[in-house]
Amino acid sequence: MKTYLLPAEGQWYKANLHSHTTVSDGAWTPEEAKARYKERGYSILAYTDHDIMIPHPELAGEDFLPLTGFELSVVDPDPALTVFSQKRNCHLCFLAPTMEDTKQVLWHRRLYHWGFKEEYVPLVKYDEESVDFVRDYTPSCINEAIAIGRRAGYFITYNHPAWSLESYPEYMAYEGFHAMEVVNYGSLYTGCLDENLHVLSDMIRGGKLPYAVAADDNHNRTEDSFGGFTMIKAPALTYPAVFAALTNGDFYASEGPLFDEVYYEDGRVYVKAREAVSVSYHPDIRRQPCIVRAEEGKTSLTASFEVREHESAFFLVARDAAGKFACTRAYSAKALREE
Question: Worst-scoring range by mean pLDDT, 79-88, 208-217, 287-296?
Answer without folding.
Answer: 79-88
